[in-house]
Write a structure and sequence with these properties.
By secondary structure, this protein is α/β, with parallel strands linked by helices. It has a single domain, classed as Vaccinia Virus protein VP39 (Rossmann fold), CATH 3.40.50.150. It contains 9 helices and 7 strands. The chain has helices at about 1-5, 10-15, 20-30, 50-55, 70-85, 120-130, 150-170, 175-185, 190-200; strands spanning about 40-45, 60-70, 90-95, 105-115, 135-145, 205-210, 215-220.
Length: about 220
Amino acid sequence: MFDRIAHRYDLLNRLLSGRRDVAWRRRVAVMLPDRSDLEVLDIATGTADVLLTLFERRPNVAHGIGADMAGKMLAIGSEKIRRIGLEGRIELIQADALALPFADSSFDAVTIAFGIRNVTDVPRGLAEMRRVLRPGGRALILEFSLPKNALIRWAYLLYFRHILPRLGALISGDRGAYRYLNRTVEDFPYGAAFCRLMQAAGFENVTDDSLTFGIASIYSGDRK
């Protein structure tokens, strides 16, 4: 599915979020650990927007690897990396979030943006994220959530269920992809429920940073 919409993925992210996706990724960058020469893994990296934001905003990031299963998304990401001149510092690979091809304790930070709800076994995916983190490392998970305010929630769901799928289908040419989006968001645990999943996977200092009236959240957890 993601390969089918790869050619319009970045454009639709900007349009359908009103460019809030840019601000959300920048917030992820702020929450990286403060240590120097960070080694970062971005899971479900898509077209590499998270890694590019981290390198733009945080000079302490030394090297990044982006992992995704969608080859066409990675091809677009690789071209973006080449244009910016970061080929030697960012590497993109095809890999499954449930079986990451890295040794234990390989990274200072692991990120994933709008991808954890697509992982077929979320507890196992979280356990893999923790496994590849070094002691003192941090996982940062950016994902959609649902607003607590009843009026905002009503307006958000109206947009998410009826307007966004039509716009997404019109621009991408794929009707199914953007109907899939709202179903996965509404069914996925968020807030305290997702924090409990992270705690069960062994993360400590778990927090939930609510963004833009609660339509997205950044979940942070450390490996001790």
